[in-house]
Automatic annotation (TrEMBL):
Places the protein is found: Mitochondrion inner membrane
Name under which the protein is recorded: Cytochrome c oxidase subunit 7C, mitochondrial
Quaternary data: Component of the cytochrome c oxidase (complex IV, CIV), a multisubunit enzyme composed of 14 subunits. The complex is composed of a catalytic core of 3 subunits MT-CO1, MT-CO2 and MT-CO3, encoded in the mitochondrial DNA, and 11 supernumerary subunits COX4I, COX5A, COX5B, COX6A, COX6B, COX6C, COX7A, COX7B, COX7C, COX8 and NDUFA4, which are encoded in the nuclear genome.
Keyword Lipid biosynthesis tagged: no
Pathway assigned in UniProt: Energy metabolism; oxidative phosphorylation
């Protein structure tokens, strides 16, 4: 009989009603293959659990953003560069297409 254990650090137990595939069912396999499958599943579980445990992030608002919002002027400059580059790309693409269509590749436009 298998005893349910508590999840370790950062490990979540999902039960979505998904059954094990037949190749992982150890009762249908030979004993040697069943032990190999069990060892593989244990090593995968240990690796994923340890990978989750190694990543400790601060929690709270504004802590999971890929940029800093502490300095509002730096944030303004970053946002202007980000949105400005996307806006300018439209005009560069248009210029490229016009130069390509009319066949003049000089930079005198």
């Amino acid at each position: 009989m298998r005893v349910a254990r508590k999840p370790r650090c950062g490990q979540r137990i999902f039960t979505l009603g998904i059954q094990k595939p037949d190749f992982l069912d150890t009762q249908k396999l030979s004993p040697r293959r069943a032990s190999n499958v069990a060892m593989l599943s244990q090593s995968i579980r240990r690796f994923t659990t340890s990978a989750v445990c190694r990543c400790h992030y601060e929690e709270g608002p504004r802590k999971n953003l890929p940029f800093s919002v502490e300095n509002k002027w730096r944030l303004l400059a970053i946002m202007c560069l980000y949105f400005g580059s996307a806006f300018a790309a439209l005009f560069f693409i248009l210029r490229h297409q016009l130069l390509k269509k009319y066949g003049c590749f000089s930079s005198s436009i």
